[in-house]
Amino acid sequence: MIQFNPADLATMLPELFLLGATCTILLIDLFLKPTQRDVTHWLSLAALLATGVLVWRDAPAQGASIAAFNGMFLRDGVATVLKVFVLLTTGLVFLYSRDYLRGRKLFVGEFYLLLLFATLGMMLLVSAGNLVTVYLGLELLTLSSYALVALNRDSAVSSEAAIKYFVLGALASGLLLYGMSMIYGATGTLDLAKIHAIADFSANSPHRMLLAFGLVFLVVGSAFKLGAAPFHMWLPDVYQGAPTAVTLFVGSASKIAAFGMTWRLLDGAMGGMHVHWTQMLGVLAVLSLAIGNVFAIAQTNLKRMLAYSTISHVGFLLLGFVNGSASGYAAAMFYVISYALMAAVAFGMIMLLARAGFEAEEIDDFKGLNQRNPWYAGVMAIAMFSLAGVPPLFGFFAKLMVLKAVIDAGQMWLAIVAIVFAIIGLYYYLRVVKVMYFDEPHDATVLELPRDRGFRWVLSLNGLALLALGVAWGPLLDWCDRAFAVAALIPR
Amino acid sequence: MLSKTILLVIVLAPLFGALVAGLLRNQVGRKGAAGVTIAGVLLSCALSFHVLYQLVWGGATTFNENLYTWFQVGSFGAHVGFLVDRLTAMMMVVVTFVSLMVHVYTIGYMADDDGFQRFFSYIALFTFSMLMLVMSNNFLQLFFGWEAVGLVSYLLIGFWFKRPSAIFANMKAFLVNRVGDFGFLLGIAGVLFWFGSLDYSQVFGATASDVALTRTVEIFAGHPWHVATIVCVCLFVGAMGKSAQVPLHVWLPDSMEGPTPISALIHAATMVTAGIFMVARMSPLFELSETALSFVLVIGATTALFTGLIGIVQNDIKRVVAYSTLSQLGYMTVALGVSAYAGGVYHLMTHAFFKALLFLGAGSVIVAMHHEQDMRYMGGLRKYMPITWITMWLGSLALAGAPGFAGFFSKDAIIEAVGESHRWGSGYAYFCVMAGVFVTALYSFRLLYKTFHGKERFVVDAHHHGHGHHDDHHDDHGHQEPGHLAHAPHESPWVITLPLVLLAIPSVVIGWFTVGPMLFGGWFGGAIRVSQEEGRDVLGEIGKEFHDPLHMVLHGFTQAPFWIAFAGFAVATWIWLFNPGVTERFKSALRPLYTMLNNKYWVDELYQAVFARGGIALGRGLWKGGDAGLIDGVAVNGSAALVDRVSATVRWLQSGYLYHYAFAMILGLIALLGGVWWVNHLAP
């Protein structure tokens, strides 16, 4: 029997606050003239900041998991870390996008509201304790994302990308729901912890096959959201077609949420079947590494190249799951955070170079950047080196931790495959660096920078953070480790 | 108790100066760069003296703490920590004091150079790195400092990076040090592997020494080696590279391509002594292996004598001092080899003062001679530059070991310690260090006579007035005929002479105050550990006969080393002061010997032929065969062709058609379902 306990509201105070703030901003935005859109911008940032403070303030003690609404909603260490970084990267999206949107007449309230709703969806998703909450959070996120991709209504590429994203997303949602219904059929519950406790995977269980097929559908749903091959097809088209500001969001914050969802579903509910899903994820990981890295080489469009690079990074991320242990999840979480911060720099740089009528999304547009502006060429070089996993940058240690988890799991061949593909990946990242430093620019004029000083500062800091976190990665990894330290969230 | 804050300030003040002078060089300008680095090093130096005072007279205990944990993986932690005992404190004082002198001197020496700020940034960075090295409490940070000083040394040897010879020299220094560092790294790896920790206090502890003595490894079948021997020899190979011991000595003479201030700071007083310091710091380990110590002893003795001999035939004033440095480093190593660690470190300290003085004096001469370094075009300079002349005399007397001067106390102790030792190789070493005394006196006074005395062998050329003086002065060898000067030489400005005077003072007097406690008084406490087995603690044996410095000096007059040095002095005086022409006759009479020394035993040529050519040939082979053929041809082009084919065939999947995408997803789903079905039914 579901009972309403008013104290539960306090548990999800950050989410409720964000919801209230978003609705308020929605109302305020209605009364703003287009010239006053900055108000929405700053209010949205303030809402994110305040939500972040609430998340941080109410962070549960290490190992504690606070459940609300009969386990529908969980607040634990994992949720806290993921929410902090979801809010942080969404904040970066706002900060980086303002000039870009203004230059394309996209500086509208919808962008902010949809993003805020998507953020709310992501927060729900990573806190979900029930299949229904998972689905609710996911739909809130993806429906907002479809609309965001189509934000530039007049662009045929944008609309096409949005339609593809929508249709395939609907298909994936359908598959996910189908899997959920199978699992409900086998266990009679939607609660993740209860599924974990009830589900009988033993060889003579009558529901064994049903559960196994349900698991496959859950894996497919998660893989679609993450963009793992062969469920990655939407990714290059959406990355290229969407306005860069939206691509930045899809490529950073939503990946963090997708990681949270995957972990909740697979470890939370289906932890007992980890023998099966670790194998599946291993296959998906290798496929993603191969397809992502090989296809990225052939791209001339930087956004498309980064899309394939995302696929390869997802492959790496999935390797963290192969271990099926807390240290592996911590490595994967560390990885997804590092990826989100690196992607933010890369897409931020594209927006920095973009001007009205010029997208700067071809690799050739970065030619000779070092002559035009050595500082930002340096920032981009840091991002590329970090994505490639060159020490001592952030990306290197993220890869190292995942590889360590894989080797601890005894899967040496997986580690070797991952390293080989990482080396192949080096090629296309270094090509960007080469183009920036060794090619002659199309026009040798000094780079015209956007007027938004905040954008430039934060982007530079974001780039330097990749260096700083590469040197002092200890605390962040420690935080990730502590988030999973219990894993007693749902006892195995 | 030593304050953590003070220690941090000591290390970080020079780093701050280096960063400001380096990164903001255009903003702070020349004065700012010099000011901020000198202020940083001055602060560091003052606090180092404070730390030394606290440790010796203030009753402070040894400081050993980890300040920052870089990362912790399993049981292995990488920390930044300081171990400050008297050994460290002495090194800190020497490093910061000499560094301060060199900083001040640089204002004058580099006055016309375009890279003024860059130079200050480098030397301040060097000071930081060297402090990190000596203050470390673990092998990892030691290695960091070790590599960092190597890097700065590389940058400074090639400071005038437009000169091909400088580039050659810094590459050579870099490569030769690579060889040493490889050994060093192996040693550190061995320490971690066998002792399970990189922390000094644990490695020097009892459990580790048990492991070191009981575990053996067969490198060559049938010849078990103690772990202690392997580790110590590997670590010492690192010291051989850094402290330029035969056969890894070849880089040091070439490093004279760098500006003179760094020759004084890095290649005489501090960095090259890092190897000596390291072995002294590792004395608890080295004491476990008689074999390793014999190895150290023989290498050191060889270096002490044979590199000194080369110094006699050099004409470049800086190279004479450079070979003298090699020889003196050999003396220090010999001291380590006979377990007289305190003697080695003590000589390190006195040598730092007088050798820095000699280098800076040589630099002063070079400035006066408009960057002419060849002694054949000098002579009679004493009347032009009296301060340089006198301080150089004092430095040379200290170097030659004239009784009462700083070098006398340290060198005499080493020679006596070798005489006292019964270790394998000590007979050979005794001969080398004795003969070395004669050689030292010979080249020291030769340098003085050829530079400051006798006839002037240069012409002051009024025609050239204003011709080349304001040009970029460091590459004016080309347009100036040797021996022709545009101006008469003159004494250097006060920023150059002041450091000379300040360094001359300790070179003369420091022995009187320090010899008793530091050499024989167990001053270093637990920092240096010598086995108390019969006949091992040679300094302790000598110490029994030591009463006070005055007696040691008076005793010194009756001993063989004094008379040998005096003989060297007499011969030098006879040849180079009174009969300069006689050298030509010697040259032709001893033609083979001269040729051998002038070619430095052909070691450079050998390395060039074997290692450099061999390396290039190997590289070319790998390039043509391995890289171009196998990797480019098969792996890269082959896989590129493969990728092309794959992407051509698979491209239809990424066709842009929605139904293709959906189809791929469904295929993936079916494959996964099939896989699960297969696993469950065929392998339940």
TrEMBL record, chain A:
Catalyses which reaction(s): a quinone + NADH + 5 H(+)(in) = a quinol + NAD(+) + 4 H(+)(out)
Keyword entries, A-Z: Cell membrane, Membrane, NAD, Quinone, Translocase, Transmembrane, Transmembrane helix, Transport, Ubiquinone
Main location group: membrane
Superkingdom to which the source organism belongs: Bacteria
Membrane topology annotation: Multi-pass membrane protein
Start and end residues of each NADH:quinone oxidoreductase/Mrp antiporter transmembrane domain: 128-423
GO MF entry, a single one: NADH dehydrogenase (ubiquinone) activity
Segments crossing the lipid bilayer: 12-32, 39-57, 77-95, 107-126, 132-151, 163-186, 206-224, 245-265, 277-298, 305-326, 332-354, 375-398, 410-430, 457-476
EC top class named in words: translocase
InterPro entries given in the database record: NADH-Q_OxRdtase_suN/2, ND/Mrp_TM
GO cellular component: endomembrane system; plasma membrane
Localization terms from the record: Cell membrane; Endomembrane system; Membrane
Family note: Belongs to the complex I subunit 2 family.
General function of this protein: NDH-1 shuttles electrons from NADH, via FMN and iron-sulfur (Fe-S) centers, to quinones in the respiratory chain. The immediate electron acceptor for the enzyme in this species is believed to be ubiquinone. Couples the redox reaction to proton translocation (for every two electrons transferred, four hydrogen ions are translocated across the cytoplasmic membrane), and thus conserves the redox energy in a proton gradient.
PANTHER family to which the protein is assigned, alphabetical: NADH DEHYDROGENASE (PTHR22773)
NCBIfam families the UniProt entry points to: NDH_I_N, PRK05777.1-5
Subunit structure: NDH-1 is composed of 14 different subunits. Subunits NuoA, H, J, K, L, M, N constitute the membrane sector of the complex.
Record-given protein name: NADH-quinone oxidoreductase subunit N
From TrEMBL, chain B:
Predominant place of localization: membrane
Keyword match Lipoprotein: no
GO cellular component: endomembrane system; membrane
InterPro entries, sorted: NADHpl_OxRdtase_5_subgr (IPR018393), ND/Mrp_TM (IPR001750), NU5C-like (IPR003945), Proton_antipo_N (IPR001516)
Membrane topology: Multi-pass membrane protein
Domain of life: Bacteria
NADH-Ubiquinone oxidoreductase (complex I) chain 5 N-terminal domain sequence ranges: 70-120
Residue span of region Disordered: 465-485
Keyword annotations of the record: Membrane, Transmembrane, Transmembrane helix
Membrane is among the record's keywords: yes
Membrane-traversing stretches: 6-24, 36-56, 87-107, 119-136, 142-161, 182-203, 223-241, 262-280, 292-313, 320-342, 348-368, 389-408, 428-449, 494-515, 560-578, 658-679
GO molecular function (one): NADH dehydrogenase (ubiquinone) activity
Subcellular localization: Endomembrane system; Membrane
Domain NADH:quinone oxidoreductase/Mrp antiporter transmembrane, chain residue ranges per copy: 136-424
A GO biological-process term: ATP synthesis coupled electron transport
NCBIfam families: NDH_I_L, PRK06590.1
Name of the protein in question: NADH-quinone oxidoreductase subunit L
